What does this fold into?
Amino acid sequence: MAYLTSKPTIPDDTTNITTTAAGHIALHNNKASAVNSLGDEMIDARNPDLDTPEETADSVPHLLGMLKQMIANITGETNWWDAVAETISSLKSRLDTLTTNVGEGWKSAGETWTYASASTITVPTGAASKYGVGDKIKWTQTTVKYGVITAVADTLLTIAVNTDYVVTNAAISANYYSHADNPLGFPARFAFTPAYTNLTVGAGANVGYYSTYGRRVKVWLYWVFGAGAAVGSSPLINNLPIAIANVYAATGNPLIGHINVLDSGTANFIGTLVRNSANVASLVMQTASGTYLQDSSVSATVPMTWATNDSFNGYLEYSF
It folds into this structure.
């Protein structure tokens, strides 16, 4: 359909109403006929010499026809009266959502997330085609929270455990994800509380932090021997916040970090952190009883007899 390129001239209805053409005046001889005639004038232009309406470029039916066609073209539907898939209001809402945080590294999830556990979130089916291990996420449950995805199932996201941000059993809103390493506002590190086997923490400091980049994680540990503490034979850290990638299992138990032990006021000793299993690492000291350094398991008397204010700090880095 060809659309008009300029405003059409609307016919002067009074010309038609007052015409003396044969048969036309008769249409106004009573109220009913007058109303019908006026209605006829509203729906089309009338040729003064004819009793039947005719459609012209200036006629109301023609203009309405163009308007209906325009509506169909805009909505993409077959007919102008068909229900539309997206209203202007819903399109605006979607555009507002898509443009929010553009340039900040975040992308709106555009879907509903719900609580599953303190470290898991239920999402719509097909999550594996949208999210990946190592992706960053943020969501709001009263306050803004952040996490790192460590596993993706069809309808479930698992995030690394930390003590800064926990998924609570409450509604989730303003949910975003990012494939970027450092989207705006993402924390530089997360805190967690290290747990040990064959080592009693006691009342001294026990601190852990981690940060991620891509599918690599850096972990920092710090522990101080305080009241009630004890060191047993071959202690392990048994709750690394992110499981060590299975690729390491095929290469035995590789070195994944270092440990520095402080004999308070006396000396420093160097050791290593060795993979034991997925979320577990062994604390191993290096001894010099021979030509080369050798590994020796930490114990109550290795690398020294542990006492108040003795401490260690460790650093681990591995793929997940």
